[in-house]
């Protein structure tokens, strides 16, 4: 997404225990999980949905 000029924050759950706990408490059982304003979370590696999300934000 960075290559398209979309800013984002990457959180590594292997390094951030609180982030991992937060995802588990929210019911997520796999990563990555991509959150964006005005969009449903994207669970798993979904290049097709990430492409749509990127196009909608630029």
UniProtKB/TrEMBL annotation:
The protein's superkingdom reads Bacteria
Q: Which Gene3D superfamilies match?
A: Glutaredoxin
Could you tell me which residue ranges the Glutaredoxin domain spans? 3-38
InterPro entries assigned: Glutaredoxin
Protein known as: Glutaredoxin-like protein
């Amino acid at each position: 997404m960075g290559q398209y000029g979309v800013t984002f924050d990457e959180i590594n759950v292997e390094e951030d225990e609180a982030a991992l706990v937060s995802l588990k408490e929210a019911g997520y059982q796999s990563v990555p999980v991509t959150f964006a304003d005005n969009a449903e979370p994207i669970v798993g590696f979904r290049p097709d949905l990430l492409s749509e999300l990127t196009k909608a934000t630029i």
